[in-house]
Amino acid sequence: MTLSFKRLALGLGVVIALCYAGSLTGGFHFDDSHSVESNLAVRSMANIPSFWTDATTSSFIPENRVYRPLVYTFYSICWTIGGGQTWPFHVMKIFMHWGVALALMLIWARLWSEPGWFPLKNLNIRFPFFKAPIAVTPLVAAFLLALLFGIHPAGSECVDYVSATTSLQCALFYVWAYYAYLLYRDSRDPRKLALSLGLYFLSVASKEEGITLPAMIFLTEFFLARPAAKKRPGAESAWSAFAQRVWVNFKFSVPYVAMGLALAAWIVLMRPASGDESRGYHSSLSYFLTQWRAYLWYMRLWFWPWDLNADNASIEFSKSLTDPLVIQAAIGNLLVLVISWMNRRKYPALLFGVVWFYVTIAPASSVVVLAEAINEHRMYLAYVGFAGGTFTVLLAMSEALFAEQTRAVRLAWIFLAVAVGLFTGTQERNRVWRNGQNLWTDTVEKNPTSGRALNNLALVYMARAEYDRALPLLDKCAQHWPTYMYCALNKGLVLASQADIADKAGNKAESTRLAALSEASLLRAYELNPRNVHVNYHLGKLHQMRKKDYEKAAFHFKTAIDLTAGRYPAAEADLANCYAKMGKAVEAKAAFERALQLDSNPEGMLFEKARGTLDAGDPAGAAETYRKLLERNPRHLQAWYNLGVTYLALKQVGEARAAFERTVALDPRSEQGWYNLAVTADTLGDGPTAISAVRELARLQPGKPKYGTRLQELLRKYGGTPQ
To answer: Which of 36-48 are b and which e, b meaning 16 or more Cβ less than 10 Å from the residue's Cβ?
Structure first.
């Protein structure tokens, strides 16, 4: 039985879609908060050109900025399609993952067609419910490999985690660029070369690790057969032959090398310097020595994807070559290379796969320092080659280990058992990535001393106002990672919220104590990183709301605005309110206008502008702004009430009464709404309305005798029957 490429490709897509259907409801996590959720630039496709010219559009936070314009183009398209929901991101990423698996299938089907690369002579596999066995040709073997890759849980982070789009999208264009190179190599069709170079550009525009393609193509030329070339005079020695081969391979790779150099210069030129702040403070040597262990860890995950971890902090950085872990890792990597080299004639695909692994993982796992020693999306591209090389050996073993009479059925059951295991593991990872609590609970269980994981789980509880559950996590965070600024920052926010709760409960002493602890924690965060956006914003809120020091608050708000390159509407609105309190009406108006221009949903900004305008002594301007807000949202309760108060300041009592009537219509239990309706009706001499409003107040607030007294006064004034 033979299978066509189209049927195999469709079947591969169906299985991958089923495998990741559970990811569609997954939320935003971790880096998504600054690169997507709070990034105003991605909310409009009109900003797509700016992603290619301005790296500040990549993140809300300066130290997290990168230059990956094609990824942010993708973010903007998905945001526009879903209006900020996550499902378009996940749908597109499933298609991308299928695209990578499909290219993997084509690449290995082509490579296994090389003389000596495919280890099988006559192997069949017979799956249950299939009438006839299937001949394991290079195409069928490549399909089976692509299927394992497509459902492998080690690839789940790239599919489930929105910010891992960088690695997924880079890999997508990289593998198709590589396949187009193989087509060009076979046909010498310049259109295929142009296609390959174009896809290479898109890969690097997605993430820097795509830059290695010229090296991989140059090395591939050593593996693949070439027509015999005429020997040059003096080229009889092995060294001369090798030098000639190097020269031929280099000439063939020149278009890729030239483009690679141009792309490297482009990336260096556009890369934001502020992004280096998030790379950590380890030396290149320390990082490189640590990666020797990381290589073996990534290889192990392909064969045994156990204990997958969204934020693995278990590998500590090595300091010197004499570290026993470094020596052990060096021996392990050397064994991998030596065994692959010694078997290069029998299994050239194995050596190729190992070379692919080390080359493609080098940008993220060599001497360029990154904050974490390991990350589960870094090996995604490396697996495309490594998986095929090791699968080649497994194919050869399968033919040798089983008797011919039972081999086809046994292999099918083994393959199905492995596939079911991988599929089940990916379902578990989909569940973990579905929401923040699942993700960070799982991560903390596996990394109980990881400050980042503890902090992020605390954020989940903070969002639900479960401060008693968040605070112990933040204390542990500070204990294990004392210099991690976010522990102190979020602890300060939790304590501030608890202080507000105590204040509302009438416990002034406890509120004062918690507020002092909150301030101390925020100042500690500021000490650790005085140029952090969040620290400055929340210190501004502290000075604005608790200390009423509007000048200091304005300083911190302005710092936060400057750090975000002017893309922080909430800070602009708070800055405007501070200016209003300081009597700087012109500055307040300008800040509010900037906030309104930035915010794609300006109701909140209009509300803040109206309040600030009133504080600045311009009730007419405030009333105009409230009316604009109510045109957009006629059911904005607080805006109707504040508009009524603003009309009172303008002595427009009739308009005020109408605003208070709308207030109580929207909220029939609004004490202040009924009270002010009674006052305005009484001022206008409308006795029935005033009496009705106070009677409702007395009913709603039976514990406040003043309303009963006021009702009797109005009845005597206007006449009427007590009820």
So the answer is: bbbbbbbbeeebb
